[in-house]
Amino acid sequence: MPKPRRRKVARSSLSFTSMTLRSGSRRLYSAFSVGRRSELTAVGLGFGSHLSRGRHYAELELELLGIFRNSRSPGVERNQLTRLRANLGRQLDPHLSLYAGLSLNGLNAPGDPVLVEPYGNQKLRLARGTRVWPGITAGLRLGRQ
User: Fold this and answer.
1) Does residue 98 lie within any of the structural domains?
2) 3-state DSSP percent of the chain in helix, strand and coil, to 5
3) What's the pTM value of the predicted model, to 2 decimals?
4) Nearest residue to 43 (alpha-carbon basis) of 62, 27, 67, 23
5) I need a labelling partner for 88 at 20 to 30 A (CA). Which of 27, 98, 117, 141 fits?
6) pLDDT tens, 70-105?
């Protein structure tokens, strides 16, 4: 089993601060993420592609996240967030890089309250409990690129 190649700390337009571990080859990888925002926790799995050219790189990543409210009351409120991200980055040294990008987010909350929404409520409601919106992300990546 390959060892995790990269770790990243990120902040997205949903205000989650998250940590992601990635494993795979130089071009294709799988990812596991854990994030937190006040009373919410997000846990996700995804996969992506990484293309480098000199000190610059581009990535395309698809991630599925479960978002849960940290509550002591009975019953668990949860949403499912699917996110497609396109990032551009710059390697600062062999083990450190900065990146930023755009995302397309789809939230499904059937029967549960909506736990996350974009800033300014800029969203398209497709069906009961389903919302779609664009977003932004930025972060710091640690580890071999």
Assistant:
1) yes
2) 0, 70, 30
3) 0.79
4) 67
5) 117
6) 766 666 788 999 999 999 999 999 889 999 999 999
